[in-house]
Amino acid sequence: MKWRRRGAWLLALLVLIVLIGGLAWWNVGRNHQQPSSPAQRVADAAALHDPVWIKRGEYLATVGDCAACHTARGGRPYAGGRSLATPFGDVPAPNITPDPGTGIGQWSFDDFWRALHDGKGRQGELLYPVFSYTSFTKVTRDDALAIFAYLKSLPPVNQPDLPTGLDFPYSLRSSLLAWRALYFKPGVFQPDPAKSETWNRGAYLVQGLGHCNECHAARDSLGGIRKNQHLTGGQIPQLAWYAPDLSTQSGGGLAGWRAQDIVDLLKTGQSARGTAFGPMADVVRLSTQHMTEADLQAVATYLQSLPPPTPATSPAPFKRAASADRGGKLYAKNCADCHGMDGHGVAGIYPPLDGNTSVTEPTGINAIRSVLLGGFAPATAGNPTPYSMPPFAQQLNDDDIAALVNYIRQSWSNQAGAVQPAAVSQYRHTPVD
Amino acid sequence: MQQRVIACTSCHGAHGEGSPDNVLVPRLAGKPAGYLLQQLEYFQSGQRRHAPMEYVVRQLSPAYLGQIADYFSQQDLPYRRWPVPAVSVETMRRGEQLVLHGDPDRAVPSCVSCHGAKLTGVQPMMPGLAGLSYGYLSAQLVSWRSHTRAAEGPYCMGVVANRMRESDITAVSAFLASRNPLADMHPAPASAQTTPLPGWCVMGQSGVNP
User: Do A78 and A126 share a structural domain?
Assistant: First the structure.
């Protein structure tokens, strides 16, 4: 009975989606944005060939980390070919080199602006929000023009896009109309006159091009981020890593981080409070290490102003795992040489584990996967030959890794929940990319 | 450097001498630097697949990969002997035939024609086959056959491995692994490769000369 009722709901939902789809179909053709004025178009055209604009666009495209998605592994930069996994199916990142047949060679700036700002393609079709227009809509028109000028200056690469691999009904673009009504509000970033210029620059970068919230906030069952979830942390869909809350204030996910710690991590991949790993190591290596000191300071200023998340429920009372002794022995044997018996690490080389928010994040995923995978901190200009950590997947079984992770999560000042060996087993079989 | 690359040495041995107990984890020490660098790059680009390796090399710059390759190429340690599975005399003879002379009927060249007369490799790119375990050698030949190991063209090994019989993989791997380590296991200098790589090597993925 319960199932039949659920089936009826699903059917109703489907009918609704199709109805909305019809509406969208009718609507899309009429919804073209007002094109730029002729004078504006002349100015835009001049910018597209101006080396100063192109250079600025290169910097902004790097801050936006566009290449990370729009480049296949081992492929030509910005030529697409990478398929992005979502809970709803795979979405290919398109070729955004100026190839006339397979890239954006025939796009006008108005087309580009509509994609970035309104999340609509060249034919007015609704774009899938794995392209983070929910954040990019905050980018100013001038910055978008600079990025477009840079992309247009790239060598064209003839590489057709991969086919979309979405499941029904998500394969119907019209299903996005409802999604957009729930989760998307177009609009360029509006500075807060009560705040400093640095704060506003930081907020603009974090909320807009940096699109930090796309990972650092929880997504609901429809893949959307609720309006009150701003940088409050969440598990990254399909990647099986946890992106922490970014508040540095008491009770925040980065509690105790100084502005300099944030700048260091984004600039070099390392800080006195922790090291970038997993997807954040990619972000540092490809994007943030190239940001100017002023922009990094602005980001830090903004993050330091974020309030801590208000806990929806009071945390479960702290309970030490029964395997603490075993975990302690494993720690002394495998970890203490580098991270120290006191969990303080070695400054500039090995991150501390005591008070490390990646260790104590709510799920334990990051600690489990770091122990399983080991690896290097990102190689950056500020830390060109990073130290590394052994992968323990080949050396320790699930019980041992769970005991070890629980010891780390519950020693010194750490008071995080215990993880189960079954979770270790699950992440042991998670693909690394 | 030894301390920096602990993510490598925890599996490949403290100095890259190979895992003491896992035949699938190869020796790195003393291999030609160019070869090691190329493999690290292939793990980064996905042309060579092995998830733990792909993850470990992901965050490294080309310059640092080069330093790591140089470091392991300079490690000079004695080679060990590996256990060899019990195979028939006939199989061992077939292995010797393929390694030293190839099989002209199947257009399979000999191993020594590229990997050095002593099978210790040739600087700067050609890896040695001497001193590798049966398990690693046979796994690599299977990988070449199934394209989980690949290379930029010329695509020699993918072609050669697919021309071999399945039983030849056992024969070649067993013969190579059964040989005693030589007094001098260093790769031959680049000048030892007097002729360019044999003509059969210059072919596309289909195995047809372009």
Answer: yes
| B21 domain-assigned | yes
Domain, as residue range, for A93: 24-183
Distance between CA atoms of residues B38 and B42, nearest Å: 6
Query: Which pLDDT band, with edges at 50, 70 and 90, does B206 fall under?
Result: very low
For residue B26, the enclosing domain spans: 6-73
- Search chain A and give the residue with CA nearest B51: A432
Q: How many domains does chain A have?
A: 3
> What is the CATH classification number for the domain harbouring A333?
1.10.760.10
Q: Are residues B69 and B117 located together in one domain of the fold?
A: no
Contact B59 A73 (CB under 8 A): no
Rg of chain B in Å (alpha carbons)? 17
Residue B58 to residue A375, Cβ atoms within 8 A: yes
* Separation CA A230–CA A209 (nearest Å): 15
Predicted TM-score (pTM) of the model is 0.89
- Residue A255 within a domain: yes
- Could you tell me if the ipTM is greater than 0.90? no
B52, B63, B64: residue with CB nearest A391: B52
Please give the residue of chain B at the shortest CA–CA distance from A429: B51
Cα gap B154→B160, rounded to integer Å: 11
Q: State how far the Cα of A57 lies from the Cα of A51, in Å rounded to an integer.
A: 10
Using the Cβ of B22 and the Cβ atoms of chain A, whether some distance falls under 8 Å is answered with yes
What is the distance between the alpha carbons of residues A257 and A245, in angstroms, rounded to a whole number?
A: 12
Residue where the block lists tokens 């903004």: A302
pLDDT of A183 above 60: yes
- Average pLDDT score over residue span A93-105: 97
What number of C-beta contacts closer than 8 Å exist between A and B?
79
Q: Which two tokens stand for residue A181?
A: 């009504």
Residues of B in contact with A433 (CB under 8 A): 54-55
Q: Kindly report the CATH number assigned to the domain that includes residue B19.
A: 1.10.760.10
Question: Could you tell me if B49 and B102 lie in one domain?
Answer: no
* Range 31-60 of B in CB contact (< 8 A) with A: 44-47, 51-52, 54-56, 58-60
